[in-house]
Amino acid sequence: MTEAPGFTHLPDLACREFGGGVVWANDELFAERENLIKRAEPVFDTYTFGHKGQVYDGWETRRRREPGQDSAIVRLGLPGVVKAVVVDTAFFTGNYPPFASVQATSAVGHPDPTELTGWEELVPKSPLGGDRKNSFEVDAARRYTHVRLTIHPDGGVARLRVFGEPVPDPALLLPEAVDLAALENGGAVVGCSDMFYGSPGNLIAPGQAAVMGEGWETARRRDDGNDWVDVRLAAAGAVRLVELDTTHFKGNAPGWASVTGRDERTGAEFPVLPRTRLQPDTRHRFPVEAVPEATHARLDIHPDGGMARLRLFGRLTTDGLRAITRRYRELS
Ligand SMILES: NC(=O)NC(NC(N)=O)C(=O)[O-]
């Protein structure tokens, strides 16, 4: 164990605010895994007992009665090269894990946690101190997407920080693309199947959704149909990248989604994104092969559920840009 203050100026690639998620843990009886990547420093109140025991601001597993270890998997919000890991055991004194190890892997697309393979060791099984920041330098020149914290044999960890340098996927970098669906660019929701719990207008709002209530959410379907939303694009354009963000929708993300383009001038309809499996609480990004220009797009979710944001990045056509310019001049 070493002090690594030289790395703490780097971004925390796991941080919730950067899109990180604790996608799996084998146990979280005493305290929920999501606490591990909260940006705020951990806090503690004495004598706050809930149904399961003392309340801790961290991830805490039950006391093992058989040999073994406990693990939690974090999807990095910013995939990249890891330079240092901090296992912060703040306020865990009689119940911190005496040892921890950290593994990482690099996955393509949007896998289910059970599909992750190829784990590589970032930090070997190392002793931890209680109620302190345990820092470990990492020497691995590789882009990782997921990190797995393993505690030996059990106990509580307040925060896991993964300091490093982001490495973007060039397939997701589109020069000159704008969000054709965005409210701020002139996009509008013009129809939807259901808006029982949340307005579909939220899908195209600026910024990220802070909570589930800032997204679009339908009621549970009890028939064989599916929910959908229809968006009028800012102007005519060709979609190159679809972003479907299910952040905050953990037990109620749709299982699958598809996007269909439509050109209202000709009546043509064409697939933009075929029916694709979705993960809970994930900002999915799907590059799109060349598709015709559209004035509208319909998002179908199967069968129901909720979504935080829909982004349709693409290039405006010359006609589309002309229409936006004309409107701006007429109204300025
Ligand atoms: N007082 C405790 O913290 N006990 C237990 N933990 C919680 N959260 O209650 C334990 O056994 O580790």
TrEMBL record:
<feature type="domain" description="Allantoicase">
    <location>
        <begin position="186"/>
        <end position="316"/>
    </location>
</feature>
<keyword id="KW-0659">Purine metabolism</keyword>
<dbReference type="Pfam" id="PF03561">
    <property type="entry name" value="Allantoicase"/>
</dbReference>
<dbReference type="InterPro" id="IPR005164">
    <property type="entry name" value="Allantoicase"/>
</dbReference>
<protein>
    <recommendedName>
        <fullName>Probable allantoicase</fullName>
        <ecNumber>3.5.3.4</ecNumber>
    </recommendedName>
</protein>
<dbReference type="InterPro" id="IPR015908">
    <property type="entry name" value="Allantoicase_dom"/>
</dbReference>
<feature type="domain" description="Allantoicase">
    <location>
        <begin position="19"/>
        <end position="166"/>
    </location>
</feature>
<comment type="similarity">
    <text>Belongs to the allantoicase family.</text>
</comment>
<dbReference type="InterPro" id="IPR008979">
    <property type="entry name" value="Galactose-bd-like_sf"/>
</dbReference>
<keyword id="KW-0378">Hydrolase</keyword>
<comment type="pathway">
    <text>Nitrogen metabolism; (S)-allantoin degradation; (S)-ureidoglycolate from allantoate (aminidohydrolase route): step 1/1.</text>
</comment>
